[in-house]
Predict the structure.
Amino acid sequence: MRALLALACTLLLCTSPVAANETFLTKEEALELAFKDCKVARSTVTLTKKQKARVKELTGATPSKSLVYPYVATKEGKVVGTAWFDVHKVRTVREVLMVVIDPEGKISRIEVLAFGEPKEYMPRASWYAQFVGKGLDETLSLKKGIKKVTGATLTARATTDAARRVLAIHQVWSARPAPPPKVKKGEKSK
């Protein structure tokens, strides 16, 4: 009887959510969900010290890596969105999110690709949906524009921080210097 009880306890521990590191989508599957019938091109971008400082200024935290990988989706030659993959720890284990930014610089989708914490610490899909349409402003924070999740506070904080980080990196990456003003014939440039 003790051997059977020990086996049952071992099976319970091995199959419990604490021991699971669940993967829900591959990168390719997530990109297909977000950008059906689009052409997706991955770039490799190295953030400069100045860009990393700007991200810190916008979010309060310096990005941990200088290399970032935007996945730009186009349809009929027009950009429809950019996907960014953010890997971070929630409590002690990693979470992988895909955050899609629309051409106006707002979040259009968040997908959880992998979640290593126990499943009860993962919010419902409806909670992630509240990020849609958010930009990098004061409403993209817990207790303001993002609702807290009882029992999943660390996940809520990690997800909100990831969304802010991705938006800041996107903003810094996509910033282009303003073109010089056009000079009409006969006028001198200043």
Notes: Strands lie at 22-23, 39-42, 45-46, 67-68, 71-75, 78-89, 94-101, 107-115.
